[in-house]
Amino acid sequence: MPVKLENVVPFGRTLEEYRRMLSLPEDLSGLRILGCGDGPASFNAEASRCGAEVISIDPLYQFSGEQILERFEASVPLVMDQVRASVERWNWSFHGGPDGLLRQRRKAIEGFLADYAQGKQEGRYLEASLPALDFEDGSFDLCLCSHFLFLYTEAFDEVFHLASLLEMLRLSSEVRVFPLLDLQHQRSRHLEPVIEALREAGYECAVEEVDYELQIGGNEMLRIWQATR
């Protein structure tokens, strides 16, 4: 199933959010990280400055920075109207409220755009889509997926989710995914069958609490790693 860009909101997150959402270590130096579906996040720019070797993949990177900003701005009114109409469904401990959330999203895309042209030249932003990626086995220490898998449960089926995670596991010894709730703030119906299939394939899986919650109840990530054989 191809990724349809109109299905996915082009919002990105900062390094601080990635650290909290995915329980990343303070010291990222030397880590080879693949970010899947990073979109206009400042994570790559910030983590690269911290000494990590980061590659972000997203079909969004077919566009110029100006075009990505246009897509972002076009999404803001609809998304923020929905958020403001349902403020009781969100945990505002990190963002402080809808205005703070939007400031964080603007901070992320500003950091992304400042780095995007150079990052593309350096091969840090690649136009590519799960579940088939053109990297050699074991190219990374860690594969991350923020706000794509499980969140878009209605747009992408269980087969797509499993194939994507197996591809990420081909490329690294550990995968982390956040959040595990879908757009309706319910745990994704794909989660349990995907975990079962991964365990049957010989992988270890754990749902772990993290220090970040925006969707109420959405403070968990899925961590998957290769079992010792």
Commentary on this structure:
With 229 residues, the chain is an alpha/beta fold. A seven-stranded mixed sheet has the order 3-2-1-4-5-7-6, sandwiched between helices. It has six helices and seven strands. The radius of gyration is 17 Å and the shape is globular. The chain is 36% helix and 16% strand. It has helices at residues 15-22, 43-49, 65-84, 98-121, 158-171, 191-200; strands at residues 32-36, 53-57, 125-126, 142-146, 174-178, 203-209, 220-226. It has a single domain, classed as Rossmann fold (3-Layer(aba) Sandwich), CATH 3.40.50.150. α5 links the parallel β4 and β5 (174-178).
Provide the CATH superfamily.
Answer: Vaccinia Virus protein VP39
Mean pLDDT: 94
CATH class: Alpha Beta
Assembly context of the chains: single chain
Supply Rg. 17 Å
Estimate percent helicity.
25-40%
By DSSP, the count of extended strands is 7
Summarize the biggest pleated sheet.
Answer: 7 strands, mixed
Name the structural class: alpha/beta
- CATH topology type: Rossmann fold
Indicate how many domains the architecture comprises.
Answer: 1
Low-confidence stretches: 1-6
Strand content: 15-25%
Global morphology: globular
Based on the structure given, which CATH architecture is correct? 3-Layer(aba) Sandwich
Would you kindly provide a brief summary of this structure?
This is SAM-dependent methyltransferase. By secondary structure, this protein is an alpha/beta fold.
